[in-house]
């Protein structure tokens, strides 16, 4: 009897060691609590955030894409009627052709700011900010997703405006320097997207965000040479205009279409402004990243 019981006891002891081995294997497969499972760049998470932001503004595209395009087109109609009579020429082209690139860039910048300044602010006000902070996304990935979606909206608005203005009587849009069109459009949209991100961190209600739009973005856009050349201004105001980064964005963008601008009429004259805007965006982006990483007015 004893000899028969020994195999049974051995089998029992073997079966009891099974769950212990399984638990040990599970502990080896999963890292300790608090240690991240995703290493490197979370491409899937970043793409998900980007698509969420894009779908958010596309869901109301009549308000976020077409309405800004129509509003900006009205500027072209009004200023062409008011200032473009008598075949007025500016920089050697009709006034409507001169002002069209500036209006396209102005619409792109304003909508880039509007898009990036909404997500975090709406989350803070509605109490849904946890949906952006809890997913396994680093601060850099969170910033890139929001800024990239804002740039996408800016380019969509710019495309709608360019199509409408190309069909408008008296406007001739020709790509004299395609590199300048793409570069200054990207730099302008990026700069305003970063500004909108910083504004959404600072703002505590929609009134604060509207204040930045009305007292910072709109004045800098309208006083940046969109409707005039700064050579018509006094030396003091020319100096003030040259201190405005919007001036270089709009003038460089205009150079891409006309081959002429307040900055200069050659690639060499404009490249300095192009590089300067690139450095400015890198510095501004680094500052926005540090603010986001600190959790200023976001996690406290």
From TrEMBL:
Keywords in alphabetical order: Cell membrane, Membrane, Transmembrane, Transmembrane helix, Transport
GO terms for MF: ABC-type transporter activity
Domain of life: Bacteria
Phylogenetic lineage: Bacteria, Pseudomonadati, Pseudomonadota, Alphaproteobacteria, Sphingomonadales
Main location as per UniProt: membrane
UniProt region (Disordered), positions on chain: 1-35
TM annotation in the entry: 65-83, 142-168, 180-203, 215-233, 245-263, 269-292
Coiled-coil residue spans: none
Annotated ABC transmembrane type-2 domain residues: 59-295
Topology class, membrane: Multi-pass membrane protein
Similarity comment: family membership: Belongs to the ABC-2 integral membrane protein family.
One Pfam family of this chain: ABC2_membrane
PROSITE patterns: ABC_TM2
Segments of skewed composition (Polar residues): 13-23
Keyword Transmembrane: yes
This protein's name: Transport permease protein
Species annotation: Croceibacterium salegens
CC annotations in GO: ATP-binding cassette (ABC) transporter complex
């Amino acid at each position: 009897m004893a000899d028969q019981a020994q195999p049974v006891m051995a089998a029992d002891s073997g079966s009891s060691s099974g769950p212990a081995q399984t638990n040990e294997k599970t502990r080896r497969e999963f890292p300790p609590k608090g240690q991240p499972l995703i290493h490197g760049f979370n491409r899937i998470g970043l793409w998900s955030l980007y698509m969420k932001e894009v779908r958010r503004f596309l869901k109301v595209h009549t308000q976020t894409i077409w309405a800004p395009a129509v509003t900006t087109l009205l500027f072209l109609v009004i200023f062409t009627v008011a200032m473009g009579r008598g075949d007025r020429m500016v920089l050697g082209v009709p006034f409507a052709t001169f002002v069209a690139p500036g209006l396209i860039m102005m619409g792109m910048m304003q909508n880039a700011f509007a898009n990036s300044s909404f997500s975090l602010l709406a989350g803070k006000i509605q109490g849904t900010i946890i949906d952006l902070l809890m997913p396994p996304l680093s601060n850099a990935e969170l910033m890139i997703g929001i800024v990239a979606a804002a740039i996408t909206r800016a380019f969509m608005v710019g495309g709608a405006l360019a199509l409408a203005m190309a069909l408008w009587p008296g406007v001739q849009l020709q790509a004299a320097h395609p590199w300048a069109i793409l570069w200054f459009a990207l730099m302008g949209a990026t700069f305003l997207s970063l500004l909108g991100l910083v504004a959404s961190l600072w703002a505590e209600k929609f009134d604060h965000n509207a204040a930045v739009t009305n007292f910072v973005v709109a004045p800098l856009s309208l006083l940046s040479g969109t409707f005039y050349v700064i050579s018509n201004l006094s030396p003091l105001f020319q100096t003030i205009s040259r201190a405005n980064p919007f001036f270089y964005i709009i003038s460089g963008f205009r150079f891409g279409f006309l081959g002429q601008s307040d900055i200069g009429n050659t690639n060499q004259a404009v490249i300095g402004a192009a590089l300067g805007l690139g450095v400015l965006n890198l510095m501004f982006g680094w500052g926005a990243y540090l603010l986001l990483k600190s959790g200023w007015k976001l996690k406290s």
